[in-house]
Amino acid sequence: MVIKMHLYRFFLLCILALFSSMSNAQLVDVIKKIKPSVVAIGIYNPTASPRIQLVGTGFVISPGNLVVTNYHVVSRGLDESKMETYVVLSGSVQQVKQHQITSRRLAPEHDLALLSIDSQLPAVTLSSQSELASEGLEIAFTGYPITSVLGLYPATHRGIIAAHSPIIIPADQASQLHAAALRQLRQPYLIYQLDAVAYPGNSGSPLYNAANGEVIGVINQTYIKASKESVLSDPSGISYAIPAQYIQQLKSN
């Protein structure tokens, strides 16, 4: 009996290892497909050094000249006297291209922004489902964590959808909440709570199904246990994302 139990455990471990290996192989291919569509959002100042300050992440959707990011990433007031403008950056490391933003559509109540750029880039596959993805689904997201420190080196994090939770809109203080966002808080909608670690620079990163790369949401918030300074040294491991159905709504408006 003891020998049979050991054999059973051995075969179970082998099966689990096989499934884990297959899952990792899938994610390797998915990341290669996603990365060309991931961009950085920055503020360009021709008189500053460096000239571009990275403020978040975005990703390209069909037809290739539309970039999705968070509203809070592009809501900061710019200094016109210094000719500051928001720009989109594609590529990585030494092969970085700068793209001008020609127009933008904003949905503060969903913390989303849709930017039109003057270029065509590879687009992700965006989920067309109106229902939320299932709890327990294995997910990943790719973006620029801690943008001002690490630069244009896209990184991928993985986890699962932990829960469907009421909306949390990031703001340093109540006065920064848009009127439409305040109205939405009185009638909250559900977003994804993730068992995964995201950082401030991940705002706007595509959240996708780890098995096939279909984008199901946008990273918009990470839960901070103590202070903003501790988010790097002591991350909570809880992050949030806006479902892709609200991207589809913004795109069709």
Topology:
Elements: H1 2-34, E1 38-44, E2 52-61, E3 66-69, E4 85-92, E5 95-107, E6 112-117, E7 138-143, H2 147-150, E8 155-166, H3 179-186, E9 190-195, E10 206-209, E11 215-222, H4 230-233, E12 238-243, H5 245-252
Antiparallel strand pairs: 1-2, 1-4, 2-3, 3-6, 4-5, 5-6, 7-8, 7-10, 8-9, 9-12, 10-11, 11-12
Structural summary, described in words:
The protein is built from 5 helices and 12 strands. The chain is globular, with a radius of gyration of 20 Å. The protein is an alpha+beta fold. The longest helix is centred in the first third of the chain and has 33 residues, at 2-34. The chain has helices at 2-34, 147-150, 179-186, 230-233, 245-252; strands spanning 38-44, 52-61, 66-69, 85-92, 95-107, 112-117, 138-143, 155-166, 190-195, 206-209, 215-222, 238-243. Helix content is 23%, strand content 36%.
In short:
By secondary structure, the chain is of the alpha+beta class. The chain has helices at 2-34, 147-150, 179-186, 230-233, 245-252; strands at residues 38-44, 52-61, 66-69, 85-92, 95-107, 112-117, 138-143, 155-166, 190-195, 206-209, 215-222, 238-243.
